[in-house]
């Protein structure tokens, strides 16, 4: 850090700015017809404005964030340039005016394609970037406020407002042509060189003035009248015809005579003037003022803003500092009288809530300082030629800290963001690198895109989504409609009206494209993380959901899914028994069966039982695992509450898990990974799991079908307390080259005659007949083999009988009851080892 | 708003005579307010955005009658028709049931009647059934007349009340009415709470005859 101070003080022009306003608040405690409280207007605005963040056009300032504050306050962060048309103190050439007009129209035409109208176009909303190009600012205000319906202030500067806006009631929605009028007035000011029109008029007079222009007719154009009123007739007469014609088209009184931005772009003036390489104005270049461009400038704005916030940037605090947010003690605004219906009387008007659309630039200096130690090379990490020799593990101090801290560390996130951006640009070719890096962690800024990559979402997802019918009413609609307003509604995005609409469309699209499945309650929860992460891209949310379900929840949404769920729960029971016999025995004893608590866990992959931030971290890992991984997550959750479970009876246990208790997700995940890694894959075999077609390289170990797992009925699964292991997995574990120290012990329960003919290497023989099966709880017999068994506690204990006889399962259960972990049953019995030519004559000891 | 009306009374150790334990199940169409009723009864709370129920949820609450303390073991089930196949697991062996409908939704009343029939056929013969017309606070969007429901309840020997989980109206009352109506005979089979799970598993076991009391 100390080095930094000797270096040139990092300093950067602000690149974004904040503005703020209040939404109208609902009076009292009002409910909609469905009995639910009305959505606060600020939430509606929040949801609606998200789409603005996707707008990308060279002549628009990008929307970076929308933030809700207290009391219906909304704060907006936009790309920002210090120079605006109103602050520029120099005249612009006639050609420059035409170019400005063209760029503004291009920006307007672009937002019009999304149904967005600026409505408050004025010189202070036209900014210029360092190359002098137009950057339209604040163009989303009218749209995000529901055409002004959600705020109590009028939108638009009367001086530039089209006359028809004053003539219709406030319910009438303005179309794209109102902006063309505003542009006309701006052009008139520039062309006539008069600065502001009617500078001496007050607000009310201004409106009257604009309305008085209605008296213009075909003989006197609006422009000529303005010229006369401002005594600049000579200037007017000297203007090029094409420019006058352009302005006249803009200032057509009747909207029907006025072109839209799209239409006006075809105006001959744009052809006549050679403006392609022209600069609008001769302002001094902003560039170079502060020396060389800062390396941070090379980052996309979204990344810059994200890092700014990590480095402590706080929009609300900045606005407060600048006096834009003032607070008044609540006691001063207590009303004198509140009627039962909620009407409020005698409340002092809170001056702090008045509108002030001042733009507050947000300084980047703290961030620049924070990242001043980062070498320029870090901005361009090598991803293709990354050699193993260059160890970059210690590139950042935070790399080994807990996830929560890494996610808040500016420099660490900077490195992750830059790396993942480059990897994602190379997707699908970089898929394996993405998986490798995601194992470490996923930077929240790019989580949506990384998940899509992990789920192998590719192809023309937009077209697929557009083609899908999301509108036609179906039987499922009622259920979807009652579920959505109950799904993760603490979240601002998901509780917004726009969020509800997206939920409905994505869910309906899923039901529509999966005729073999039906909507089960819980699908809404599954959908939530994808909508949350892809709020501006329903098609991607849909594609992710569509890829997620077959991978982890194959057949779970069949109309009759009971066999699928029961099989899953039976495997869960087996996995508990395999890893935690004491817990398993206790839960069995008290009858705390997974059917009573784990259905919502697995049916929704925990998305119904955890809040979003936890789901995101959980799924970050889940997506890297296979379809069996969630079983280990379930076990790890139980184990976090192991002590409580072990000391409780049925009622306490079920109460504990009725409202899922606090779970440390990071620990849960690392536990799940360790559990997963020490469990043979075949023990979690399910017949309802999706069969993944193996790639040719994985196929190099073709097995005899008897060495592989095969389906068992739910009743069979439930009758056995321990999972089965496949012959193939056992052969693998017996491989002495791979595991010089054996990881497995085979317990052969056949009679000694058979055992002595041939058995698994290193196995012990405890014949089934040696047990006292008449005892209420059969015990392990006392014999040398039983001691060997107990000494090998911790190894995978494979109980093998002859064929599929129930004897092995019975013995396995006894081992489980005596508290031995990792007990499993050899599927199809010892005979399958014959197929691996592995049966040896036991050495007599 | 969310905390109007406190939870039902806790037992007072001084006055309690015997303690009876009953299993109660809530059934009814999705989103009629089953979970909200339970939440109001058990915790005295109301959440506008109550999460939907998947599978079932379990809660307990105790109410005091003059000489008895009644402990309810409440199974709140999922309302979606598809989860129907799970329902028997929860109502089997239940001594009481609350069948809930939403007074602003006629279909939910129809669904409630289907539940009544099913319980009359499949559940324990002495089961005490209460019908709850929930969301009484939304009376101005009423679709099911109170008289109609009352008549139906009378015909079928059900307890009936219009309730509101939101305003707490009749919530404690309906549970209390059930507690009063439940038989509290000492000699009833004494399956303790630890056997609860096993009882749930007995898929073909005959329904328990009466309330089980322990002293
Ligand atoms: N106005 C009003 N709303 C209620 C009342 N009870 C429940 N609600 C609302 O109705 C919706 C559904 O309530 P839940 O309790 O989730 O319904 P449920 O019957 O448990 O639904 P499932 O779990 O899907 O079976 C929620 O948004 C509740 O806030 C009530 O008495 N009055
Ligand atoms: Mg519920």
Automatic annotation (TrEMBL), chain A:
Residues spanning the membrane: none
Residue ranges of domain Rab-GAP TBC in the record: 441-626
Keywords: GTPase activation
Any GO MF annotation of the entry: ATP binding
InterPro entries assigned: Kinase-like_dom_sf, Prot_kinase_dom, Rab-GAP-TBC_dom, Rab-GAP_TBC_sf, Rhodanese-like_dom, Rhodanese-like_dom_sf
Taxonomic source organism: Thrips palmi (Melon thrips)
Segments forming domain Protein kinase: 1-270
Family matches, as Pfam families: Pkinase, RabGAP-TBC, Rhodanese
Gene: LOC117646857
Protein's UniProt keywords contain Aminoacyl-tRNA synthetase: no
Domain Rhodanese: 740-841
The protein's name: TBC domain-containing protein kinase-like protein isoform X1
From TrEMBL, chain B:
CDD domains attached to this UniProt entry: Rab5_related
GO cellular component, one term: early endosome
Regions of compositional bias (Polar residues) in chain numbering: 186-198
Keywords recorded for this protein, A-Z: Endosome, GTP-binding, Hydrolase, Lipoprotein, Nucleotide-binding, Prenylation, Protein transport, Transport
Single GO molecular function: G protein activity
Catalytic activity reported: GTP + H2O = GDP + phosphate + H(+)
Pfam families, per the entry: Ras
EC number: 3.6.5.2
SUPFAM superfamilies xrefs: P-loop containing nucleoside triphosphate hydrolases (SSF52540)
Protein family membership: Belongs to the small GTPase superfamily. Rab family.
Full protein name: small monomeric GTPase
Gene this protein is translated from: LOC117642806
């Amino acid at each position: 850090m100390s080095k930094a101070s000797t270096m040139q003080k990092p300093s950067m022009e602000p690149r974004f700015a904040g503005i703020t306003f209040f939404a109208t608040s609902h009076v009292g405690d009002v409910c909609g017809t469905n009995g639910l409280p009305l959505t606060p207007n600020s939430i509606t605005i929040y949801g609606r404005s998200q789409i603005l963040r996707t707008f990308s056009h060279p002549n628009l300032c990008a929307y970076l964030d929308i933030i809700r504050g207290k009391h219906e306050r909304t704060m907006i962060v936009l790309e920002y340039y210090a120079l605006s048309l109103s602050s520029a103190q120099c005249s612009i050439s006639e050609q420059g005016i035409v170019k400005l007009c063209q760029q503004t129209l291009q920006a307007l035409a672009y937002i019009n394609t999304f149904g967005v109208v600026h409505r408050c176009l004025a010189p202070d909303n036209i900014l210029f970037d360092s190359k002098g190009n137009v950057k339209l600012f604040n163009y989303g205000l009218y749209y995000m406020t529901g055409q002004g319906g959600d705020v109590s202030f009028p939108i638009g500067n009367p001086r530039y407002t089209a006359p028809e806006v004053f003539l219709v009631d406030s319910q009438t929605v303005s179309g794209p042509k109102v902006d063309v009028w505003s542009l006309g007035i701006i052009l008139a000011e520039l062309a006539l060189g008069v600065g502001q029109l009617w500078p001496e008029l007050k607000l009310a007079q201004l409106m009257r003035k604009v309305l008085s222009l209605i008296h213009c007719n075909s003989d006197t154009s609006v422009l000529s009248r303005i010229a006369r009123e401002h005594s600049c007739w000579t200037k007017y007469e000297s203007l090029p015809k094409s420019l006058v014609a352009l302005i006249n088209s803009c200032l057509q009184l009747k909207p029907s005579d006025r072109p839209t931005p799209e239409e006006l772009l075809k105006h001959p003036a744009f052809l006549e003037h050679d403006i392609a390489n022209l600069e609008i104005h001769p302002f001094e270049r902003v560039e170079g003022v502060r020396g060389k461009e800062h390396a941070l400038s090379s980052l996309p704005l979204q990344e810059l803003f994200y890092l700014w916030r990590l480095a402590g940037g706080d929009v609300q605090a900045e606005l407060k500092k600048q006096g834009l947010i003032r607070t008044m003690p609540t006691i001063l605004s207590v009303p004198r009288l509140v009627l039962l219906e909620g009407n409020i009387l005698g409340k002092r008007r809170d001056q702090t809530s008045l509108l002030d659309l001042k733009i507050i630039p947000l300084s980047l200096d703290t961030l620049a300082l924070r990242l001043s130690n980062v070498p320029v090379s870090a901005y361009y990490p090598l991803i293709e030629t990354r050699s193993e020799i260059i160890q970059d593990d210690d590139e950042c101090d935070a790399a080994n800290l807990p996830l929560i801290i890494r996610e808040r560390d500016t420099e660490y996130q900077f490195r992750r963001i830059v790396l993942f951006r480059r990897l994602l640009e190379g997707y699908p070719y970089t898929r394996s690198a993405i998986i490798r890096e995601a194992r470490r962690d996923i930077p929240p800024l790019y989580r949506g895109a990384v998940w899509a990559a992990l789920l192998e979402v590719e192809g023309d997802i937009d077209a697929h989504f557009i083609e899908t019918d999301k509108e036609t009413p179906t039987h499922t609609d009622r259920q979807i409609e009652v579920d959505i307003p109950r799904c993760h509604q603490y979240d601002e995005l998901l509780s917004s009206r726009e969020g509800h609409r997206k939920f409905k469309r994505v869910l309906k699209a899923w039901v529509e494209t999966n005729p073999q499945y039906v909507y089960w309650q819980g699908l809404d929860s599954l959908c939530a993380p994808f909508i949350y992460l892809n709020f501006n891209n329903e098609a991607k949310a849909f594609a992710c959901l569509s890829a997620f379900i077959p991978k982890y929840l194959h057949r779970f949404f069949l109309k009759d899914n009971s066999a699928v769920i029961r099989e899953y729960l039976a495997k869960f029971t087996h996995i508990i028994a395999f890893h935690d016999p004491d817990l398993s025995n206790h839960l069995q004893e008290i009858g705390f069966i997974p059917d009573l608590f784990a259905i919502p866990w697995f049916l929704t992959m925990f998305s119904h039982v955890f809040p979003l931030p936890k789901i995101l971290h959980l799924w970050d890992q889940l997506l890297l695992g296979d379809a069996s991984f969630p079983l280990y997550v379930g076990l790890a959750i139980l184990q976090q509450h192991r002590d409580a479970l072990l000391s409780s009876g049925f009622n306490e246990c079920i109460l504990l898990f009725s409202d899922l208790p606090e779970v440390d997700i990071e620990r849960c995940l690392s536990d799940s990974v360790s559990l997963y890694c020490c469990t043979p894959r075949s023990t979690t075999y399910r017949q309802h799991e999706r069969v993944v077609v193996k790639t040719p390289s994985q196929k190099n170990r073709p097995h005899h079908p008897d060495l592989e797992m095969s389906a068992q009925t739910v009743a069979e699964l439930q009758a056995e307390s321990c999972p089965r292991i496949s012959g193939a997995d056992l052969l693998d574990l017996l491989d002495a080259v791979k595991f010089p120290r054996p990881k497995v012990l085979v317990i052969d329960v056949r009679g000694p005659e058979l055992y002595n003919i041939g058995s698994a290497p290193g196995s012990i023989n405890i014949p089934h007949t040696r047990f006292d099966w008449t005892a209420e709880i059969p015990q392990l017999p006392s014999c040398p083999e039983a001691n060997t068994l107990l000494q090998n506690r911790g190894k995978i204990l494979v109980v093998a009988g002859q064929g599929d006889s129930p004897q092995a399962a019975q013995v396995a259960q006894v081992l489980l009851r005596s508290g031995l972990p990792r007990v499993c049953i050899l599927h199809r019995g010892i005979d399958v080892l014959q197929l691996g030519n592995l049966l040896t004559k036991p050495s007599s000891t | 708003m969310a905390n109007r009306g406190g939870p039902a009374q806790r037992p007072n150790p001084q006055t309690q005579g015997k303690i009876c334990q009953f299993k109660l199940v809530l059934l009814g169409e999705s989103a009629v307010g089953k979970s909200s009723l339970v939440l109001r009864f058990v915790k005295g709370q109301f959440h506008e955005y109550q999460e939907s129920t998947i599978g079932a949820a379990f809660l307990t609450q105790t109410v005091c009658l003059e000489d008895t303390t009644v402990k309810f073991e409440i199974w709140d089930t999922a309302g979606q028709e598809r989860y129907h196949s799970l329902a028997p697991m929860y109502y089997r062996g239940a001594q009481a049931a609350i069948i809930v409908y939403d007074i602003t939704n006629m279909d939910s009343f129809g669904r409630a009647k289907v539940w009544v029939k099913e319980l009359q056929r499949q559940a324990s013969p002495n089961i005490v059934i209460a019908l709850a017309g929930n969301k009484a606070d939304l009376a101005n969007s009423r679709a099911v007349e109170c008289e109609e429901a009352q008549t139906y309840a009378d015909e079928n020997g059900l307890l009936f009340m219009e309730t509101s989980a939101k305003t707490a109206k009749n919530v404690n009352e309906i549970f209390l009415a059930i507690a009063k109506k439940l038989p509290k005979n000492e000699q009833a089979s004494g399956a303790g709470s630890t056997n609860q799970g096993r009882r749930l598993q007995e898929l073909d076991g005959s329904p328990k005859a009466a309330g089980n009391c322990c002293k």
